[in-house]
Specification:
Elements lengths: L3 H9 L6 H17 L32 H25 L41
């Protein structure tokens, strides 16, 4: 429920997401998941989805009849993509002057800019490490 959206977005939609969207989606999903309760772990739901069944017995925890895990997973997808697209647009328009997660910095690995004094890779030696005869 929490890591599956990350895996799918990174593997198949990495051009749509960035660090801000992934962090916001994961944080929201883990918060919603914790608030939804878990009878196996023994804590009551604070966020009760439609169809929540309260227990009649004292000390017995109720349960959700709503597919809340699937809903949280779909929200995770939507929030990660939405926040990523929003931060990209804000950055491109110049409305996001700060970058605490270092998503849009020019010092990324593999980036080439005219101000770099050192090449990204340096040749240490001209001899190959392994020689085949």
């Amino acid at each position: 429920v929490l890591l599956f959206p990350h895996l799918v977005l990174v593997m198949y939609a990495s051009h749509l997401v960035n660090r801000y969207g992934m962090l916001t989606g994961f944080t929201t999903a883990i918060l919603l998941r914790a608030l939804s309760g878990e009878p196996v772990l023994g804590y009551e739901a604070i966020l009760k989805f439609p169809g929540y069944v309260e227990s009649e017995e004292i000390g017995v925890i109720g349960h959700q009849n709503f597919p809340f895990r699937m809903t949280i997973m779909l929200l995770h997808f939507a929030i990660a993509i939405g926040v990523s697209l929003l931060t990209d647009r804000l950055h491109k328009n110049g409305w996001m002057p700060f970058d605490p997660l270092d998503q849009y910095s020019r010092s990324k690995v593999g980036s080439t800019s005219s101000t770099d004094s050192d090449p990204p890779c340096k040749v240490i030696s001209n001899t190959p490490a392994v020689q085949f005869d």
